[in-house]
């Protein structure tokens, strides 16, 4: 379930028009690196070829996680900042019933 929620957050970040292109590319480049057979260490080496692919994700994940967290916090703050001046708080006794 955690994996699906992270993928959902990444998709929301990639679709957000307010996120700079270079930040979006930070998510796309490691995936392209994994798919393309030309690596620092070729995939034709049995174990070493796969280790460099995994290393890219291990090294990039803290940066990507921080970027995702900031994006999620920004979206949450925007939702909280919605103007509620015309709304009535039913938990307070500061309204009149006619």
Main attributes of the structure:
mainly alpha
Task: Please describe the topology of this protein.
Layout (H helix, E strand, L loop, with lengths): L1 H14 L5 H15 L12 H33 L18
Helix pairs in contact: 2-3
Distance between the termini: 49 Å
Helix segment count? 3
Structural class: mainly alpha
From N to C, what is the helix and strand string?
Answer: HHH
Q: Roughly how many Å is the radius of gyration?
A: 22 Å
Largest sheet: none
Proportion in β-strands? under 5%
- Overall spatial form: elongated
Structure, described:
The chain is mainly alpha-helical and 98 residues long. It has a domain at 9-73. It is built from three helices and no strands. The chain has helices at residues 2-15, 21-35, 48-80. Helix 2 (21-35) runs antiparallel to helix 3. The longest helix has 33 residues, at 48-80. The mean pLDDT is 77.
